[in-house]
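Q: Joint fold for the lines below.
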Amino acid sequence: ETGVTQTPRHLVMGMTNKKSLKCEQHLGHNAMYWYKQSAKKPLELMFVYSLEERVENNSVPSRFSPECPNSSHLFLHLHTLQPEDSALYLCASSPSGLAPQYFGPGTRLLVL
Amino acid sequence: DQQVKQNSPSLSVQEGRISILNCDYTNSMFDYFLWYKKYPAEGPTFLISISSIKDKNEDGRFTVFLNKSAKHLSLHIVPSQPGDSAVYFCAASEEGGSEKLVFGKGTKLTVNP
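A: Joint structure:
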């Protein structure tokens, strides 16, 4: 499998649930990202990992917890989410330097 | 306040004609610009990029123009094809790296046969 993959593609969860989103990249990149896309809003950067270390956290609520066990895998652990957290969550990866980011297909999350 | 603005939410063009998508930015420190295309139920796909040392970059039917003094960039697609129908996002970053991309809200392009 090539590129950036994300699982699950769709997720429905209650506010008391705990779930995790998974991202895997097969491109040999050393930076990975989580973005949130809400309706009628631009993509919002949530977390950046470079060489498995978090380098950016754009003031994301603690109910979102990222994990990067190695340069190919990225997780987003979710707990006690709110209905306004319903959105498309996108993972991306990139090589270092001046280069584009490559996105996965996203996980469509609905919080009830 | 939005640093990257795509003021046209939608654009409709006839097949074979030119599509011009526009993007304005406010941060003069931005020095790397990208265009992405997004189909429904898929993630954004990288199309073309340009660094601030250039004013034009071309790749097949896609050309990006950068006007630094006006803080404006545009994407030209010629000739437009029905398969180009998608949402197009402009993105920018500063400090010579692409780790912190700032995105516009997108423009939905419809190419009519």
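Q: Anything notable?
A: DSSP finds no helices and eleven strands in chain A. Chain A touches chain B through 27 residues (CB under 8 Å).
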